[in-house]
Write a structure and sequence with these properties.
The chain is an alpha+beta fold. The chain has seven helices and nine strands, in the order E-E-E-E-H-E-E-H-E-E-E-H-H-H-H-H. Strands 1-2-6-9-8-7-5 form a seven-stranded mixed β-barrel.
Length: about 325
């Protein structure tokens, strides 16, 4: 690995010299754009949309679009006095329990390696973090951007996770959140049973990128001049279920069968009290505000009572 940044972790009066490495790498297969007829690489030129001339890097500056076709031009001098830290320091701000940080805030991960004589203070901070079961909240400036980040311990190494700022996380504004929808106890129990039947210990190595593997096989076959074998037909998605309880029950039985637990599922289904089907497409709670929706059966009984009362009168 190649270090992409050098600096120091500022921990109280202690300064720990470190190198920063990318902890992850992109494994997607990358392609070049080429000419179909002769496989020549496609080149792009930087051309001004106003004068039509090709522009060199020395004549390119940043522009901010304020709308209406107007652009505010900013030069290097405009950026020079901004309060972006250039001290190459990772400033520890506080220590917090890890569970208080919403994972949606995490952006990119980096490894920290001690540099020179900084091994002992590095190990001290690492072990103290591990014993406290907390993470450090820090600030760091990378690539002309100041980021909030966490420091935590993973496999004996300090890991820095840059984070998004709170205003960079969108608020989910979905219509169903304002609807009056709820699950019946029987449906909730069945869904919980499905979760239990599919529960296990997470092992990242158990999962693979099947698309990438298939694409690599196509490329390897092309290189070797072989026929490209047709991929296996993907399993068809199940048809939309009409009855929510039936769909849950079938899902539980399928999950248990996959784990070799099929015999108990049928017996449990036989012992369970029958439940009136709930169509998935009409699972919303009913109708008028301020009152529950009346079923057809209840409405008929109420009508019979009213007619009986009129005849008695």
């Amino acid at each position: 690995m190649r270090a992409i940044w050098k600096g120091a972790v500022s921990f109280g009066l202690v300064s720990i010299s470190v190198k920063l490495y990318s902890a992850t790498e992109e494994k997607s297969i990358r392609f070049h754009q080429v000419h179909r007829t002769d496989a020549g690489r496609i080149r792009y030129q930087r051309v001004c949309s106003v004068c039509g001339e090709q522009v060199g890097y020395d004549d390119i500056v940043k522009g901010y679009d304020i709308g209406g076709g107007e652009i505010v031009v900013l030069t290097d001098e405009d950026f020079a006095d901004l309060p972006l830290s250039t001290s190459r320091a990772i400033d520890v701000l506080e220590f917090v329990p890890a569970e208080q940080i919403d994972p949606i805030l995490f952006d990119k991960a980096y490894y920290l390696e001690p540099e020179g004589a900084a091994t002992k203070p590095y190990v001290l901070l690492r072990d103290a973090l591990a014993d406290s079961e907390r993470v450090a909240i820090v600030k760091i400036a990378l690539r002309q951007k100041e980021s909030l980040a966490t420091l935590r311990v993973r496999e004996g190494v300090l890991v820095l996770n840059t984070m998004l700022w709170p205003d960079e996380v969108r608020v989910p504004e979905f219509g169903f959140l304002d609807e009056d929808v709820s699950a019946r106890p029987q449906e909730l129990a069945m869904a919980t049973s499905l979760i239990d039947s599919m529960t296990g210990d997470f092992a990242a190595d158990a999962y693979t990128d099947e698309y990438r593997e298939a694409l690599q096989q196509v490329i390897d076959a092309k290189v070797a001049g072989q026929e490209v074998a047709a991929p296996a037909e993907a399993e068809k998605a199940p048809a939309p279920a009409v009855d929510l309880m039936a769909a849950l029950q079938a899902s539980v039985e399928r999950a248990r069968a996959a784990r070799g637990e099929g015999d108990g599922a049928e017996q449990e289904a036989a012992d369970r009290e029958p439940v009136e089907p709930t169509p998935i497409t009409s699972a919303k709670k009913g109708g008028r505000k301020g009152g529950a929706k009346t079923s057809d059966k209840d409405g008929k009984e109420a009508g019979e009572k009213r007619r009986g009362s009129r005849r008695s009168a």
